């Protein structure tokens, strides 16, 4: 999982270093996904790392990770599967605020594993978060973010 954005001095990104768990109930016919009954993915917010400790601390403060340690996506709507593309809706919860969002992803099957790949543009303001600032407010993060993911679910034994 990856979060990307902009600031007054440069574009930035934070990559999840572990911290991602999830469950899915999928119906398969061979290598074809037929139905998705449920998907839930949880990301420990402090597993997101930028390579810059002060940036990470500003991000965790903005996300209120001490109070809301996880970012959670849970599918809420029916899924429409067409070829290897899926359209659905889900509840995205960040910093105690939940929004229902539409999302489109692609999937692939490899043995007992189904991988979902996609991205979603969101805004800090959608979740009532003030974009992080640094150096006494002279460096400001843009309001727009892109969440990107490549998540594999493996059939339970």
Q: Helix and strand layout, with pairings?
A:
Layout lengths: L1 E6 L4 E5 L3 E10 L2 E13 L3 E2 L3 H11 L6 E6 L4 E3 L2 E10 L2 E14 L2 E11 L9 E2 L4 E16 L3
Describe this structure in words.
With 157 residues, the chain is mainly β. It has one helix and twelve strands; from the N terminus they run βββββαβββββββ. It has one helix at 53-63, and strands spanning 2-7, 12-16, 20-29, 32-44, 48-49, 70-75, 80-82, 85-94, 97-110, 113-123, 133-134, 139-154. Strands 1, 2, 3, 4, 5, 6, 7, 8, 9, 10, 11 and 12 form a twelve-stranded antiparallel beta sheet that branches. The model has no long low-confidence stretch (mean pLDDT 92).
Question: In summary, what is this structure?
Answer:
The chain is built from 1 helix and 12 strands; from the N terminus they run E-E-E-E-E-H-E-E-E-E-E-E-E. With 157 residues, it is mainly beta. Strands 1, 2, 3, 4, 5, 6, 7, 8, 9, 10, 11 and 12 form a 12-stranded antiparallel beta sheet that branches.
Largest sheet: 12 strands, antiparallel
Count of helices? 1
- Rounded to the nearest angstrom, the distance between the terminal CA atoms is 25 Å
Mean pLDDT: 92
Note the overall shape: elongated
Gyration radius, in Å: 17 Å
Count of extended strands = 12
Return the structural class. Answer: mainly beta
Strand content: over 45%
Would you identify the regions where 5 or more consecutive residues have pLDDT less than 50? none
Q: H/E order of the elements?
A: EEEEEHEEEEEEE
Please bin the fraction of helical residues: under 10%
């Amino acid at each position: 999982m990856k979060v990307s954005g902009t600031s007054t001095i440069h574009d930035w990104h934070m990559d999840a270093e572990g911290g991602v768990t999830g469950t899915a109930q999928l119906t398969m016919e061979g290598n074809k996904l037929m139905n998705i009954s449920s998907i839930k993915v949880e990301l420990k917010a402090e597993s997101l790392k930028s390579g810059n400790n002060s940036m990470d601390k500003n991000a965790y403060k903005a996300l209120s990770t001490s109070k809301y340690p996880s970012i959670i996506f849970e599918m809420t709507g029916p899924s429409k599967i067409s070829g290897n593309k899926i359209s659905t809706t889900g509840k995205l919860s960040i910093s105690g605020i939940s929004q229902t969002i539409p999302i489109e992803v692609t999937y692939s099957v490899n043995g007992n594993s189904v991988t979902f790949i996609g991205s979603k543009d969101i805004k800090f303001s959608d979740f009532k978060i003030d974009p992080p600032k640094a150096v006494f407010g002279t460096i400001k993060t843009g309001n727009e973010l892109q969440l990107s993911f490549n998540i594999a679910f493996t059939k339970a034994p």
